[in-house]
Write a structure and sequence with these properties.
54% helix, 56 residues, mainly alpha
Amino acid sequence: MPTDLPPRSHIDIHDRRTREAWSRHFDVTDERLRKAVRIVGSRVATVAAYFGRPKP
């Protein structure tokens, strides 16, 4: 698990570095992360569940 993840409960989809970190964590493209946030919202736990991955 990357250690460069921001310690937040929500993903700031407007911040490029934050998107890059979460995209790496979930092993998805930037576009796929953006789409997930549009569909389920920005909560890390909800996005993790959407991708079928554990919350960090």
